[in-house]
Amino acid sequence: MMNSSLIRASTFHIPPPLQCTTRDNVITSPNYAIEGRNLSYSITTKQGKSVPILQDCSITIPSGQLWMLLGPNGCGKSTLLKVLAGLLNPTHGNMYVKRPKSFVFQNPDHQVVMPTVEADVAFGLGKFNLSQDEVKSRVEKALDAVGMSDYIQRPVQTLSGGQKQRVAIAGALAETCEVLLLDELTTFLDESDQMGVIKAVKNCLGGDVTALWVTHRLEELEFADGAVYMENGRVIMQSDTKSIMAVLKERISSYSDQINL
Ligand SMILES: Nc1ncnc2c1ncn2[C@@H]1O[C@H](COP(=O)(O)OP(=O)(O)O)[C@@H](O)[C@H]1O
Ligand SMILES: [Mg+2]
Asked: Pfam families attached here (predicted)?
């Protein structure tokens, strides 16, 4: 059940679009890295029935910031992230996400494909026709940004889960990704590994890089510039972290059986 306190005017805040131009299904907006307007996504069952997964979701993430996406299990966080990543096509709505963009999956073992850290970060650069020096320089810079420079020659199978996630993020940075869409990266990690990943992400931001981070860990909110809260396929609230935290704390007891907050 939806709690009316969640939608009171003081905390419900989705800023109006800035100067936007709409072209086909795309919005372009200068100050936001991510903008989704009234996004819906439905699946069709074998019986031909349409089942809504996302309904009328609007989300606006300023450039250069880290925002969290929170909500109970099954509320649609991963689906919204995949729509923003372009992995799923929205059924309705408009969106704009700066490019290049990269989606990083939850399971660290699904991220790394090459035998060594250096080869893995360089893997995605093959398509750019870069000189060897340029590849080397991008790999080193990206590993430095995620605090993994000392591991450049290490076999990836010797890394912890969090280190693998940082290598995956370095791969995205090496490709000069401007938007990182990060889906519950810290779920399988212990506390120190978790902190390593979130600090690495923080260190990459500002300038041209923006991150949207799906999490169920409330303590990660303190690293964020703002947060978006979802329930039942809808964006209920987008706000600063303090306001989100206050509302979530009110609600913890009412849905602690559904969400690990
Ligand atoms: N391809 C699909 N087929 C059927 N149901 C789906 C599919 N993708 C997502 N869902 C359902 O949509 C809801 C939202 O899923 P998801 O986005 O993974 O939620 P979250 O990431 O918040 O846990 C869940 O109830 C899930 O079972
Ligand atoms: Mg998910």
From this structure: ABC_tran (PF00005)
Torsions phi, psi of 30, nearest 5?
A: -70, -35
Pocket (CB within 6 angstroms of ligand 1): 43, 53, 71, 73-79
Nearest protein Cα to ligand 1, atom 16 = 76
Q: Count CB neighbours of 131 within 10 A.
A: 8
Q: State the residue range of the domain holding 139.
A: 62-89+99-256
Note if the pTM is more than 0.70.
yes
Query: Which ligand is nearest to the Cα of residue 234, counting in written order?
Result: 1
**Residue 194 falls within a domain, yes or no?**
yes
Using CA atoms, how far apart are residues 83 and 58, in angstroms rounded to an integer?
A: 12
Number of folded domains that form the chain: 1
3-state DSSP assignment of residue 35 = strand
Residues 150-201 have pLDDT tens digits of 999 999 999 999 999 999 999 999 999 999 999 998 888 888 888 889 999 9
Pocket test for ligand 1, best of 79, 80, 84, 183 (most atoms within 8 A of CB): 79
